Amino acid sequence: MSFLDHLEELRWLLVRSTLAIVIGACVAFTFSGYIFDNIIFAPKRSDFITYRIFCDLANKYDLDKSFCVTEIPFDIISRTMDGQFSTDIWTSITAGLILVFPYILYLVWKFISPALYEKEKRYAVSFILSTSVLFFLGVLFGYFLIMPLSINFLGNYTISNVVKNNVDLDSYLSLIKTTVISCGLVFELPIIIYFLAKLGLVTATFLRKYRRYAYVIILILAAIVTPPDVVSQMIVTIPLAILFEASIFIAARINKNKEKEALANG
C-alpha cells in the first residue's frame, strides 16, 4: 500500500472509532440516571461494598477501624448553569468509550495486521480478548479499590475545621474518570511489554534489573491511597505486583523464542 492508502485506512479507523463511541455514548446517555446514582456516586456512600468489606476485615482481624465509614463529609455541587448537562454528555462519552473498547481494538488490529506475519495474524482473537479483559479488569480495580480509597482519604482530609468541603462536580468526576481509565491502561502493561519485547526494546533482564524500583513505586502508591494497615495495602499491591511479574514472564518468553529463531537461522 502507498503512503496515501495508509492515510486513507487511518482515516476510516478514526471515523469508525468515533461512530462507535458516539453510539456507545447514546446508549450510556439513555441510562445516565442509573449510571450516576448507582455507579458514579456510589463510592461516596458509606454503604459502598468496598467500605463494608474493609470494615468486616478490620473487625475480624482487629485492624485499623478507619475504613468502617459512617460518613464521607463533603457535598458535591455544580457551580455553572450548564454544569450538569455538560457533565451528563461528557460522562456518556467516557462510558461509550469504555463500552466499545473491544471494537476499537478490533479496528486497530485490522489496521496493523498487514504489517504482521501470517502466523501472527492468527492471534487476532487472543489479542483482542486478552487486551479487553485486562482493560476491564483495570477499570474494575480502579473503581472498586483505588476510587473508594481515594474518595475516603481525600473526603476526610482536613487542614482546619474552618474549611468545609464542597466539591465541584467536575472535580469529582475528573477524579473518577482519571482513576478508572488510568487503571485500565496500566493493566495493559503485559500487552505493552509483549510488543516492546517483540521489537527488541525491552528484555526480561532489564525488567529484573529494575524490579526493586518498580516495587518501591507500587508500595508508595498503595500507601498513599489506602488506610494505614497492612491488609488494605496488600490488597492494592498484590494485583500490581502480579502484573509486573507477568510482564517479566512474557518478556522472557519472547526473548527465549528470539534466541531459538536466531540459532535455527544461524
Automatic annotation (TrEMBL):
<comment type="similarity">
    <text>Belongs to the TatC family.</text>
</comment>
<feature type="transmembrane region" description="Helical">
    <location>
        <begin position="124"/>
        <end position="146"/>
    </location>
</feature>
<keyword id="KW-0472">Membrane</keyword>
<comment type="function">
    <text>Part of the twin-arginine translocation (Tat) system that transports large folded proteins containing a characteristic twin-arginine motif in their signal peptide across membranes.</text>
</comment>
<feature type="transmembrane region" description="Helical">
    <location>
        <begin position="89"/>
        <end position="112"/>
    </location>
</feature>
<dbReference type="InterPro" id="IPR002033">
    <property type="entry name" value="TatC"/>
</dbReference>
<dbReference type="GO" id="GO:0065002">
    <property type="term" value="P:intracellular protein transmembrane transport"/>
</dbReference>
<keyword id="KW-0813">Transport</keyword>
<dbReference type="GO" id="GO:0043953">
    <property type="term" value="P:protein transport by the Tat complex"/>
</dbReference>
<feature type="transmembrane region" description="Helical">
    <location>
        <begin position="213"/>
        <end position="228"/>
    </location>
</feature>
<dbReference type="GO" id="GO:0009977">
    <property type="term" value="F:proton motive force dependent protein transmembrane transporter activity"/>
</dbReference>
<dbReference type="Pfam" id="PF00902">
    <property type="entry name" value="TatC"/>
</dbReference>
<keyword id="KW-0653">Protein transport</keyword>
<keyword id="KW-1133">Transmembrane helix</keyword>
<feature type="transmembrane region" description="Helical">
    <location>
        <begin position="234"/>
        <end position="252"/>
    </location>
</feature>
<keyword id="KW-1003">Cell membrane</keyword>
<keyword id="KW-0812">Transmembrane</keyword>
<feature type="transmembrane region" description="Helical">
    <location>
        <begin position="12"/>
        <end position="36"/>
    </location>
</feature>
<keyword id="KW-0811">Translocation</keyword>
<feature type="transmembrane region" description="Helical">
    <location>
        <begin position="179"/>
        <end position="201"/>
    </location>
</feature>
<comment type="subunit">
    <text>Forms a complex with TatA.</text>
</comment>
<dbReference type="GO" id="GO:0033281">
    <property type="term" value="C:TAT protein transport complex"/>
</dbReference>
<protein>
    <recommendedName>
        <fullName>Sec-independent protein translocase protein TatC</fullName>
    </recommendedName>
</protein>
